[in-house]
User: Which sequence fits this backbone?
């Protein structure tokens, strides 16, 4: 994806071939044990936010907004308060009041995710403009982005930035480097040709290897399908394809062709086994729940609703323990997969994902729908009160008149 993990988490899970690691461990040294930082009251999740605070917060807020919830003000304020003066976001800043400096580890993924969340919520135009300005200032010559400013372009980072540009109201194709290359140019260069070997054909590489060769990676492919379509983390189902997925051969595919080819590769991977796999070094392949959810979103966006049914059903049945252990970002991913396919996230395999996500962070405000219902109920109550007040007055008046008539009748009797 949709980079659902920051550099440190990527290194820990080893889901992609070229793992990114924070500077603290890039030289091979082990970081000194430190106490986990206190969790801010506005932040989702109860685990150390050092490497994923902004990312998980952005996904959580996006998911809540997508299903009609109004996130807690302090949750939104916490995210907005993480921004540096130059517009960028780091994965987490424990002291947001302190000015960012050259030691602040800002990155494109946190920044792009925050833009998508704040743009969706509204009211943060100044902040999102500054963030987009920073992203555009660190665009690589090939039109793409790396995880950190100046780092080699990768499919995941480029795609999440494309989503940010679109969310902020821009046209990703208009974001061009000084050499005139767009993000789509960078993504197309990372797409594996249809005559590539085996299951790699049509997919996207995270980055070329040291020899320039491309090896498809499912995580990068799911992200790049959305990026090539110009879509962000939140999407709805695209128009169904008029034909079955095929890998369209082209010397230089268009972004649309590259997206279709990537979806073709994901559909093929999910044909026999309804989930994608990941493996830790020396360990057996195991299900990758997050990547499977991302693949569902990508397939739906490309118009492959039929191809999402099996992996979605598998997620509904099996993802509960993973989401419980992984926290808010996992619940958000499942909610976004449900949304993309038109599935009810409040009844996802018997689980209310919205409630589960809400339990990991500050309580939401009343939703707009709930407020309207409350207002309607209040009006109905008022109408009821008015009606019964009128009836009551009428009854009292009737009783009074009855007494008067009765009294007069008695006086008229001899």
Assistant:
């Amino acid at each position: 994806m949709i980079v659902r993990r920051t550099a440190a988490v990527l290194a820990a899970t080893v889901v992609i071939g070229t793992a990114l690691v924070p500077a603290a461990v890039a030289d091979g040294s082990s970081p000194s044990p430190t106490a986990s930082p206190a969790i801010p009251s506005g932040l989702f999740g109860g685990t150390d936010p050092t490497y994923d605070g902004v990312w998980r917060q952005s996904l959580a807020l996006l998911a809540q907004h997508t299903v009609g919830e109004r996130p807690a003000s302090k949750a939104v304020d916490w995210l907005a308060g993480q921004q540096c003066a130059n517009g960028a976001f780091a994965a987490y800043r424990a002291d947001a009041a302190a000015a960012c400096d050259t030691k602040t580890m800002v990155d494109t993924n946190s920044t792009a995710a925050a833009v998508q969340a704040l743009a969706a919520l509204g009211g943060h135009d100044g902040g999102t403009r500054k963030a987009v300005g920073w992203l555009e200032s660190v665009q690589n010559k090939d039109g793409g982005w790396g995880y950190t400013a100046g780092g080699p372009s990768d499919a995941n980072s480029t795609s999440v930035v494309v989503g940010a540009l679109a969310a902020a109201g821009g046209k990703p194709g208009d974001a061009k480097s000084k050499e005139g290359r767009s993000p789509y140019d960078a993504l197309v260069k990372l797409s594996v040709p249809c005559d590539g070997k085996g299951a790699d054909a049509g997919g996207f590489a995270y980055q070329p290897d040291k020899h320039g060769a491309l090896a498809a990676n499912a995580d990068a492919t799911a992200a790049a399908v959305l990026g090539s379509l110009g879509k962000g983390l939140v999407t709805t189902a695209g128009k169904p394809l008029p034909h079955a997925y095929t890998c369209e051969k082209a010397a230089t595919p268009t972004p649309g062709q590259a997206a279709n080819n990537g979806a073709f590769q994901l559909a093929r991977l999910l044909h026999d086994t309804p989930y994608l796999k990941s493996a830790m070094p020396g360990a057996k392949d195991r299900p990758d729940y997050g990547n499977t959810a991302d693949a569902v979103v990508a397939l739906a966006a490309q118009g492959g609703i039929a191809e999402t049914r099996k992996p979605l059903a598998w997620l509904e049945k099996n993802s509960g323990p993973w989401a419980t252990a992984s926290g808010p970002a996992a619940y958000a991913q499942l909610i976004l997969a449900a949304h993309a396919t038109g599935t009810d996230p409040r009844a996802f395999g018997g689980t209310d994902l919205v409630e589960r996500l809400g339990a990991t962070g500050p309580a939401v405000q009343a939703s707009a729908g709930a407020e309207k219902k409350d207002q309607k109920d209040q009006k109905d109550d008022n109408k009821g009160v008015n009606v019964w007040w009128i009836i009551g007055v009428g009854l009292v008046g009737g009783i009074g008149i009855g007494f008067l008539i009765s009294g007069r009748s008695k006086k008229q009797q001899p």
In short: Residues 2-33, 387-414 have pLDDT under 50 and may be disordered. The first strand starts at residue 89 and ends at 90. The chain is about 50% helix and 0% strand.
